[in-house]
Q: What sequence folds into this?
């Protein structure tokens, strides 16, 4: 009993409420894991920012340099360059141009050279952006990009096909179409040449926002459980006293 209400158990409401709450708590757990990851990630970025530039031509121990500064000299192979589509720069649509760089002793390394507008990417002007001969690239060493969603929309190239348009720079998916070893990382170039959009540091959601999301999802789940319980309290019908009818004699 709760005032003039009484609890009437509903299996359907209880099951739905528990499922909704479990989903909210699972999302809270996921956001908390993202919070812990971001703390470690930003600590790592801080450490990498003060490390000296690694010259890949002289020292190929790149595993410890993830997200750190590197330098590499080699020869571009523009006939095998690809594009990362659906990108924008100051609200201007375009692509990221990615060109293989042949580095002596290291093989092929993909270089994210920067943003170009769609008109440039689909015209003869694109050829003029690639320097012939030996070039020196400076940038940040990035790990292969993985899917951001539960469903992976990126598909590998078909056998014998060279796929030029990709959704993300996933070296594992891209490598088979080169028919030779491809390094599992790429260089995000910071010394872009004229014709490319300026280098922009990747924007990352701060760790504190993931903690805020964690608290929100816990609140949603707890409030949902309260609503389910409250909805099963039914108002009791108030019995009206019977009126005695006077009979005339």
A:
């Amino acid at each position: 009993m709760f005032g003039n209400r009484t609890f009437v158990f509903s299996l359907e409401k209880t099951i739905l409420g528990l499922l909704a709450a479990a989903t909210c708590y699972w999302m809270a757990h996921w956001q908390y894991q993202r919070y812990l990851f971001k703390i470690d990630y930003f600590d790592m970025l801080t450490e990498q920012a003060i490390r000296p530039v690694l010259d890949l031509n002289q020292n190929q121990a790149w595993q410890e340099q993830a997200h750190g500064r590197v330098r590499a000299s080699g020869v571009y192979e523009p006939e095998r360059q690809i594009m990362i589509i659906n990108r924008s720069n100051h609200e201007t649509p375009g692509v990221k141009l990615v060109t293989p760089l042949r580095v002596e002793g290291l093989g092929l390394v993909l270089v994210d050279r920067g943003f170009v507008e769609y008109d440039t990417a689909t015209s003869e002007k694109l050829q003029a952006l690639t320097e012939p001969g030996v070039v020196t690239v400076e940038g940040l060493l990035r790990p292969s990009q993985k899917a951001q969603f539960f469903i992976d929309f990126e598909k590998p190239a078909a056998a014998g096909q060279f796929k030029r348009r990709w959704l993300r720079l996933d070296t594992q998916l891209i490598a088979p179409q080169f028919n030779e070893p491809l390094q599992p990382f790429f260089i995000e170039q910071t010394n872009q040449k004229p014709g490319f959009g300026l280098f922009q540091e990747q924007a990352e959601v701060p760790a504190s926002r993931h903690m805020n999301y964690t608290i929100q999802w816990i609140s949603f789940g707890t409030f949902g459980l309260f609503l389910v319980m409250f909805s099963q309290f039914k108002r009791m019908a108030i019995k009206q006293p019977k009126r005695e009818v006077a009979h005339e004699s």
User: Anything to note?
Assistant: The chain has a mean pLDDT of 84. The chain has four helices and ten strands.
